[in-house]
From TrEMBL:
It comes from the Eukaryota. CDD domains: HAD_Pase_UmpH-like. Mg(2+) binds at residues 30, 32, 251. Its EC number is 3.1.3.18. GO terms for biological process: photorespiration. Pfam families: Hydrolase_6 (PF13344), Hydrolase_like (PF13242). Keywords: Acetylation, Chloroplast, Hydrolase, Magnesium, Metal-binding, Phosphoprotein, Photorespiration, Plastid, Transit peptide. Coiled coil: none annotated. This is Phosphoglycolate phosphatase. Its cofactor is Mg(2+). The active site is at 30 (nucleophile), 32 (proton donor). It comes from Daucus carota subsp. sativus. It is found in: Plastid, Chloroplast. NCBIfam families: HAD-SF-IIA, PGP_euk.
Amino acid sequence: MDDAAAARGEKLSSGNVNHLIDSVDCFLFDCDGVIWKGDTLIDGSKEALDMLRSKGKKLVFVTNNSRRSRSQYAKKFLSLGIPVTQDEIFSSSFAAAMYLKLIDFPPAKKVYVIGEEGILEELKLAGFTGIGGPEDGKKTAEFKANSLFEHDKSVGAVVVGLDQYINYYKLQYGTLCIRENPGCLFIATNRDAVGHMTDLQEWPGAGCMVAAICGATEKEPVVVGKPATFMMDFLLEKFKISTSRMCMVGDRLDTDILFGQNAGCKTLLVFSGVTTPSAFHDPSNHTHPDYYTDKLFDIVSLM
Ligand SMILES: [Mg+2]
């Protein structure tokens, strides 16, 4: 292979798969598009995880999808027949709560959530008061003369993640907090454009909700999910493995592969999710993983 081809990544093959496995102690996995699509397991992903566990590899799941908390993700894994503990899961919902902890966000202040149950649960576990979320999904905003849209002045942060119940009420609430509460933080769980919320289709991702608040506030958020390496700091503290002995496996170039590269990990791109082979090989793509392959199970079938 010439240098230009090598720089674009190697196709996973029977000639390099054993080297990859031997050179890695900890595999980090994105979930949507790698392990499952929506609530449907991708063929062979369970077998691939079983094989890596049997070889003594540490497995960690790093997901930008903030709809669930870590314990809710652990339950989802179990329901799909994959034993995973909460400690092995790093979700962007958890990252948002950990970010607030890290900056000593005052627990007396509230957090307004444009997002789902996972963010509220992680905030609560971290000792913070989250408001909004699913409950505000049923509320409506009306344009009425001489009537003020009230918002809580004690909100000190707005966390925005994937929200299938996004509405104009929440947009106004979050916007008012950021624009009018002095020092109010704007935190995004992630900015994924789209994701496989169901097995057959892609849907607008958290990037869509975040863009709405950016548009209204003319502010940019702090992003805690991939490709930001914020979650990696927690992961390193917990597992004490050098990032050079880690491999990030994902289906998105702009989040998963970039996250792995930003953190100094090896990277493996799979085509079972968002990225198509033609988009990857297109000259306009400048993000290149160390390895690429069709699906996770290839690491078993190529061995
Ligand atoms: Mg994905």
